């Protein structure tokens, strides 16, 4: 089945122009014969993946196994340009759910896509502009939303410190004034009781 798909793809690869790049994601006609053979709406999947649809993105990543040659290079360029479109977090979580073999395959193919893309920002090392995706591709656990917990910690600390400074002096003054009063009263009451016992 795969050999048949590869032959179909090869017959349409030569001289196939790319589609107009709406919304900035590259799509090539070279992948369409294979997509049609497996009854996949390739353009629709790219559109959904660009709108952060994780299932459509997963389908496209899995589709990478079905193409070869120039069609694979074109498809991987699409996959690369989907990272900022789908966002690093969504892309990383989708990659995290892929098999280890597919992660390794994508990791090997993406550098070629980086050389082909016309977007200069995507030619930089992936770990610089898509750190979550880089972690997922390398088989590491992706932990997202760490900055939010760091920002919440200092705020209550400043409030508590301010409250403690205000409460501190106000509590010390009344405590010093009230302390001698009960001692003096208790001394006056106990003195006559002891005197009576002495007289008896």
Q: Mind summarizing the main beta sheet?
A: none
Query: How much helix is in the residues?
Result: over 70%
Contiguous uncertain segments of 5+ residues: 1-23, 148-155, 161-165, 173-179, 187-200
Q: What is the H/E order?
A: HHHHHHHHHHHH
- Euclidean distance between termini CA atoms: 120 Å
Number of strands: 0
**Beta strand %:** under 5%
Structural class: mainly alpha
Shape: globular
Give the helix tally: 12
Q: Roughly how many Å is the radius of gyration?
A: 35 Å
Mean pLDDT, all residues: 77
Structure description:
- With 200 residues, this protein is mostly helical.
- Helix 3 packs across helix 4, helix 5 crosses helix 7 and helix 6 packs parallel to helix 9.
- It is globular.
Task: Identify the notable features of this structure and list them briefly.
single chain, mainly alpha, disordered C terminus, disordered N terminus, 200 residues
Question: Would you spell out the secondary-structure blueprint of this structure?
Answer:
Layout: H1 2-13, H2 32-37, H3 42-50, H4 54-63, H5 69-86, H6 88-96, H7 100-116, H8 126-129, H9 131-137, H10 147-152, H11 154-178, H12 180-199
Helix pairs in contact: 3-4, 4-6, 5-6, 5-7, 6-9
Concise account of the structure shown:
It is built from twelve helices and no strands.
